[in-house]
Amino acid sequence: MKRSTINSVISDTAAFAAAHKRSLPSWAYWKLEEYEVNREVSRYLNARQMGWDVTDFGGGDFAARGLTLLCLRNGILGDPNERTYAEKLLFVDEMQEAPFHFHKFKLEDIINAGGGNLMIEFFHPEDETAPVRVQADGHIIDLRPREPLKLKPGQSVTVDRGVHHRFYGEKGAGPCLVWEVSAVNDDLTDNYFLEAPDRFASVDEDVAIATPLWNEIPTQP
């Protein structure tokens, strides 16, 4: 992905959140220079994979297969003295797919916090023909494998461990502001993709970094 695209996507996502009355922490707006000055905060965020994440999943077509995330809270997987939970903001555009994947550790709730309708599909990796039962806002729903479940603004679904899932914005309904509440998130070790080449994007530095991604936050003294 081009750095200019990443810079623009972060700015647009922050504006979309503000339009939906969602306030972000001050560090979400910091430029690279502010992270460099505030090294204690920067080290804290980087160690917990907190901050911005913009990815095309290694495919090179962000509009079709991509995702913008801001990790707001997180612990460190395996550290008993850390938080046991995580919270993320996600921006999902119309027909922009986050491809099929599952987690072995992370149990998560996906919440449509505003905007368009979020479509989410499921299947069991051990039996791709088996029906899938999910819990959505207290309702038990039985789905055919890969049958889309529509989440309107305000609705949510629990994604069980070990269940493949993908999601995208419904065509014609507008982009979605999505919230994720989960167990501790570790994007380095707990994502198991069906097809995506890579969890993280390769960056073409066509312009300077404005707001860094979480793995670019400076940590050295």
From TrEMBL:
Q: Which domain of life is it from?
A: Bacteria
Describe the reaction catalysed, as an equation.
D-lyxose = D-xylulose
Q: What class of enzyme is it?
A: isomerase
Cofactors named for this entry: Mn(2+)
Task: Give the enzyme's EC designation.
Answer: 5.3.1.15
Keywords, comma-separated and alphabetical: Carbohydrate metabolism, Isomerase, Manganese, Metal-binding
Single Gene Ontology MF annotation: metal ion binding
Q: Which InterPro entries match?
A: D-lyxose_isomer, EcSI_cupin, RmlC-like_jellyroll
Q: What family does this chain come from, according to its entry?
A: Belongs to the D-lyxose ketol-isomerase family.
Q: What's the protein called, per UniProt? A: D-lyxose ketol-isomerase
